[in-house]
């Protein structure tokens, strides 16, 4: 079994809108991805999330997105590469500045939602994203095991952590099942734990029922999904055995 880092997308509440349960999730994680204000998060939430991560010794990552709070960053936007670079640099810099101001450091950067998938298929988009990470001196990028984001990360000399998902279904292509389709999310704790168990062994079961090889270094649990804390606890117990 491979040792796997457990991460979650946190800090996504904003202006009185509560998303997820960061206080219960944080102690169970190895790393977290903090929203930078574009799909979720605000200055106060960012501060609170950073402080919570520092309290529990959880590695902090920047989690930039398309500028799309209305759709929670889950709608693809076509943005010219120079503008995308500026948007990424802005968000990463905000999280990095706040983290360092509170006595911590940023461990990694991971794109959010539709941006995550867009970058993996766009050479120019991935290059803009990774260049923003490099300019910010962020050493690690989390992303899909194969694709343009990994290619550009390694091209720029940064460390790439291939990521799996505990609570999302995989298609036989090893792409995540579209959220527009039934069965896209694994909200059953037993199913999520079994998926992580398979990922530990370098495999995953796809929607066709077949087992496929996949190698990951970190596994994500979505903090905004109902019941995330209970799934995180069960996964933590598995990873600690």
TrEMBL record:
InterPro entries in alphabetical order: Glyco_hydro/deAcase_b/a-brl (IPR011330), LamB/YcsF/PxpA-like (IPR005501)
One Pfam family in the UniProt entry: LamB_YcsF
Signal sequence coordinates: none
Any one biological process term the GO annotation gives: carbohydrate metabolic process
Name of this protein: UPF0271 protein
Species of the source: Neolewinella agarilytica
